[in-house]
Specification:
Layout lengths: L22 H5 L4 H9 L2 H14 L4 H25 L3 H6 L3 H33 L5 H18 L2 H28 L17 H9 L10 H8 L7 H30 L10 H14 L1 H38 L17 H11 L2 H6 L4 H25 L13 H27 L1
Helix pairs in contact: 2-8, 2-10, 2-11, 2-13, 3-9, 3-11, 4-9, 4-11, 4-16, 6-7, 6-13, 6-14, 6-16, 7-13, 7-14, 8-11, 8-13, 11-12, 12-13, 13-14, 16-17
Pfam family, one: Nramp
Subcellular location: Membrane
Membrane topology: Multi-pass membrane protein
Length: about 425
């Protein structure tokens, strides 16, 4: 059955049947990559970049590049699978067996509860920093509701437009702040030659291995469909889309590392956790004034709010597809089956689930058992995603021309080994730490 029978045709007006061949024409269609990349750029990425910059200068800048490359490889694989096979990533995931589908569904449910609380709380922390004395809970709740309303009443085209605006804000504030810092660089001396300094190992793992919100990568196949990309004719545009997106978002993390290195390296000041971003903003404000502090915080807020709106939309689509697969017992659905849409009951149920139940965790301590289960599932998700993609991109489900080359297989193998190690380290720390 064709994918058009499974997902509602959300084709934007003006999408041509034959995509352009020149670079200028292709760049006009760049968009879904920004959505998935911006969705994955959250406080965690900025925190680890700022901690690394504070502790080691720019010697770990190479780790950000490697991390962005890994996300590129995985996202490009998801897009290539969809355009080559006409199947969503979750349909491909199901080919690995019911165990994979059930795991995916369980992870989605727990992810919605814990992530929904964590990301709105982080957004609220930034808002309180901008407006001291205001209510943390009120900002957290209003952030979640804002994401809920934007997704409930909006569609993909609105989501992409909003993401581009937020990325523009981030570009001006975060990258602009880094340029100002470099233009006013002091006498701070720190290493810039790529290396692995003593004591940097766990910082490297933190930059490479954050599992939070990693499931949103799998939303890419739904977003490129909504963009109007239907088959392998769009393959080159998809690759350009993902490349541009991760170059830009990688620049954000690099900029934060530069800011932290210039302001705090060698100062004896240490930062940790999400509150470290506020501390970094305070240090920036002390040097350049309160307006500069505000500009930096607005950029951080933009990064975090993209990590609310994106998952609210993408994960709701994933849950809807999961419900469809379970209802059909893994078989191809009848050709007249109603396609899934943002108006689907399952979509709106999950949108409600990721918004409102997590608010309870803002008022009460998170149940330890749920956190441990979520952590265990999260630590295992990325290696499973990479392994499933490795299987799918070497299968006969797609033409030989679209399958992995030996080089790509090697890269996927290294990614799997990396995430197995990262996941094992996280589980070990949870159990024995």
């Amino acid at each position: 059955m064709k994918v058009e029978e499974k997902i509602e045709r959300l084709e934007p007006q003006g999408t041509p049947n034959n995509p352009p061949n020149n670079l200028k024409g292709k760049l006009k269609f760049v968009g879904p990559g920004f959505v998935v990349a911006a969705t994955g750029v959250g406080a965690g990425d900025f925190v680890m970049a700022s901690i690394a910059g504070t502790s080691f200068g720019l010697t770990l800048l190479w780790v950000i590049v490697v991390g962005a490359f890994i996300k590129f490889v995985l996202t490009e694989g998801i897009g290539r699978w969809y355009l080559a096979s006409g199947k969503t990533i979750l349909e491909g995931w199901h080919l690995a067996g019911w165990w994979a589908t059930i795991y995916f569904g369980a992870y989605l449910v727990l992810m919605g509860l814990i992530y929904g609380s964590a990301i709105t709380g982080t957004c609220a922390m930034i808002m309180v920093a901008m407006f001291p004395g205001t209510s943390f809970s009120l900002w957290a709740i209003s952030s979640g509701i804002a994401g809920f309303l934007l997704v409930w009443f909006g569609r993909y085209q609105i989501l992409e437009g909003l993401m581009k605006i937020l990325i523009g804000i981030m570009f001006v504030s975060i990258i602009g702040s880094a340029i100002i810092i470099l233009a006013n660089a002091g006498s701070v001396e720190y290493g810039i030659v790529p290396s692995i300094p003593e004591g940097s190992f766990f910082k490297i793992l933190g930059i490479l291995g954050g599992v939070g919100a990693s499931i949103t990568l799998t939303s890419y196949s739904y977003w490129i469909y909504a963009k109007g990309w239907r088959n392998r004719q769009w393959m080159s545009i998809m690759k350009l889309d993902v490349s541009v997106a991760y170059i830009v978002t990688g620049m954000f993390a690099i900029s934060v590392m530069i800011i932290a290195a210039e302001l705090l390296f060698g100062s004896g000041v240490t930062i940790s956790g999400n509150d470290g971003l506020v501390g970094l903003a305070d240090a920036y404000g002390e040097r350049f004034g309160n307006i500069a502090r505000w500009i930096f915080l607005i950029g951080v807020w933009g990064a975090i709010f993209t990590s609310i709106v994106g998952p609210w939309h993408g994960m709701s689509y994933l849950f809807t597809d999961f419900v469809r697969i379970v209802k059909n017992k893994g078989r191809k659905a009848p050709g007249k089956e109603k396609p899934i849409t943002e108006k689907d009951t399952a979509f709106r149920f999950y949108l409600f689930w990721i918004t409102f139940p997590p608010m309870l965790l803002l008022l009460f301590k998170q149940p330890v058992a749920i956190v441990l289960i979520y952590g265990a599932l999260g630590a295992a998700f990325m290696p499973i995603l990479a392994a499933v993609l490795l299987f799918l991109l070497n299968s006969k489900q797609i033409d030989k021309a679209d399958r992995n080359t030996k080089v790509k297989n090697t890269i996927f193998g290294l990614i799997i080994l990396l995430y197995l190690y990262l996941g094992g380290s996280e589980l070990f720390e949870m159990i024995f730490g």
